């Protein structure tokens, strides 16, 4: 269908034109509504058992950005970008299992009976997992939502850079983040003042093996 081809072409453009941007127009303000629209797209990402462990801290306050700057290794984009979004992951996301399935029931996707059974299965299964496993899940799901956030932003004409270069303990302290949450990454979001540089990728043959793996 023509419409499908059009959507595919646009997606192709978005993923090819996304580059990590580190120079932002400090005078550009992205409205709260636009940021919410980007996050609304991002949270459509898949997650383990749909438990959606991601949580976001949207940092737009200039004074708070200044406090974040040294914690983020003085990466200037933290201050210059319109917002820095911290993605954190709830390692006890299974506590929301009932709520999530109630939303599904309210939307007419499942019966109350099926929803309750699915919620119980998730809660029982995840609450008995080792903490390390729950952290890994929060990080994987957090990575997926982060990628989707960056592409959603690009599709709306904005740029981003994901940042792992920050001190998680100091970040945790600044926002009084309980142990229950893992820090995933920071994402600067704003209007580019200079294009991100193009980066090379390993050729497909070097990263793909078919039907087996030889290292
Ligand atoms: C998990 C993660 C952490 C990163 N941390 C930083 C960072 O702290 N500072 C930075 O400038 N770029 C950071 N980057 C951006 C990478 O350098 C960049 O994605 C990579 O060079 C590929 O370039 P591209 O994003 O323009 O395609 C990070 C990327 C990822 C995925």
Automatic annotation (TrEMBL):
<dbReference type="InterPro" id="IPR029479">
    <property type="entry name" value="Nitroreductase"/>
</dbReference>
<feature type="domain" description="Nitroreductase">
    <location>
        <begin position="15"/>
        <end position="191"/>
    </location>
</feature>
<keyword id="KW-0560">Oxidoreductase</keyword>
<protein>
    <submittedName>
        <fullName>Nitroreductase</fullName>
    </submittedName>
</protein>
<dbReference type="InterPro" id="IPR000415">
    <property type="entry name" value="Nitroreductase-like"/>
</dbReference>
<comment type="similarity">
    <text>Belongs to the nitroreductase family.</text>
</comment>
<dbReference type="Pfam" id="PF00881">
    <property type="entry name" value="Nitroreductase"/>
</dbReference>
<dbReference type="GO" id="GO:0016491">
    <property type="term" value="F:oxidoreductase activity"/>
</dbReference>
């Amino acid at each position: 269908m023509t419409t499908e081809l059009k959507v595919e072409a646009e997606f192709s453009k978005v993923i090819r034109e996304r580059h990590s941007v580190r120079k932002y127009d400090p005078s550009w303000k992205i409205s709260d509504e636009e940021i919410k629209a980007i996050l609304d797209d991002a949270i459509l990402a898949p997650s383990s058992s749909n438990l959606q462990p991601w949580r976001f801290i949207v940092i737009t306050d200039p004074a708070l950005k200044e406090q974040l700057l040294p914690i983020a290794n003085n990466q200037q984009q933290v201050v210059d970008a319109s917002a820095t979004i911290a993605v954190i992951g709830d390692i006890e996301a299974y506590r929301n299992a009932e709520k999530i399935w109630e939303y599904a029931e309210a939307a007419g996707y499942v019966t109350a009976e099926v929803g309750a059974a699915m919620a119980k299965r998730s809660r029982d299964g995840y609450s008995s997992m080792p903490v390390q496993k729950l952290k890994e899940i929060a990080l994987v799901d957090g990575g997926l939502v982060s990628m989707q956030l960056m592409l959603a932003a690009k599709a709306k004409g904005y740029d981003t850079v994901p940042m792992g270069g920050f001190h998680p303990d100091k970040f945790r302290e600044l926002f009084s983040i309980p142990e229950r949450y893992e820090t995933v990454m920071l994402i600067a979001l704003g209007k580019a003042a200079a294009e991100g540089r193009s980066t090379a990728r390993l050729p497909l043959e070097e990263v793909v093996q078919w039907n087996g793996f030889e290292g």
